[in-house]
Amino acid sequence: MTSATNSIRELSCAVSIFSNAPLASILFSVAHKLCTTMFHFFPCTMFHRYSSLLMIATIICMSAPMMSHAANIDSTSTATTTPTGPTIKIGGYVDMYYAMDNDKGDVRAATEVLNLERNKFDINIALLSVDVSADRYRGRVAIQNGEVVRVSWTSPFTFFPSIQEAYGGIRLADGLWLDAGYFFTHIGGEVVLPKDNWFSSLALTTIYEPFYQAGARLTYDPSDKVTLQLHVLNGYNRLEDNNANKSIGWFIGYHPNADFNFNITGIAGNEQDADQKGALRFYNDFNMTWQITPKFGIKVEGDLGFQGATPLINRNQSTTMWSILGGARYSFNEQWSLAGLYEFYNDEKGMLTAPIIKGQVMTGCLEYRPVPNAYVRWEARYLNLDITTSSIFTGDNGVPTNTRFGATINFGLFC
Fold this sequence. Notes:
The protein contains six helices and 18 strands. The protein is an alpha+beta fold. A hairpin with a 2-residue loop joins strand 4 and strand 5.
């Protein structure tokens, strides 16, 4: 672990002089040392990887105010100069948790992706990213580790679990961009990173939507209120393709102002393996977020999916799934907020879920933000599934049950 420690020490020294160096030199120095450090910690043990990711991400987050100060000084001194180079942003994120519940079994992965391990501290995600943007091109590379990677970035869906995103794009015309590579999904009202959601757990709807995708996307902004996207992808929640077909995705976003956002998204394609009979999957999602007042906001989401065959019931029988959820959040002030969510999920034919999941979920979350880029969340979650099809939990004396209650506390820092 000595080499990684030395790299971190060098990176800390570089951070200490950020306020006195030009921004371009700062970014180059950090990027260089970041790459050097990654070389050292990725071949090592999981503990080593986690420790290095935690230290690097924390240093980058702590240095963000100094980088901003240096950028302000530089921009003031060159206010009359037209910028010619790209904008480079280096980011970091760490989310740690402690979780508990009353389930005596071991099926948490069927209903949880975040906060997966019981009765111990663990890391959901540790993330390092570099974003590059210019007038005619852009790109992003994000490296990750943590429990969510172990559970969701798995073979055969991907062979490179440490790569969260890696893509590049060019501007074809005003408001028209073409990007290609590995992306987060365009589907859904939540993302896999807790910092970008109201809650530190994911809705069942989100868990069974795609997390990631590989391919190309065309983005067009006809105005500052509308965004349109067309995707050509390897498949539904796949970086590695499993057949010779490609899937088509779409995104229609309406955002008239900063307080209201409405999206219609979806994907269609054959998601069966190459050695199996093909079956079209057609998946649709709509989601809306509305900040009604500065203190109070709501969100609504609904999903509807069709597939020509189901793996659990009958491969020649078409099937349907659907879900709906609604949530609200109230902010007492800039630091404290309270949010609640109700969801009903129905996949009784097993189109996406195994074991079959049908039932309701209720979630409550109290959040404290000591600073804008850090949070502590206390969360309670109750699952009440269909007793006939979804008694997947284990109660006292090993008896199957359809209910589970759990609680988590999450700590997050990002920049």
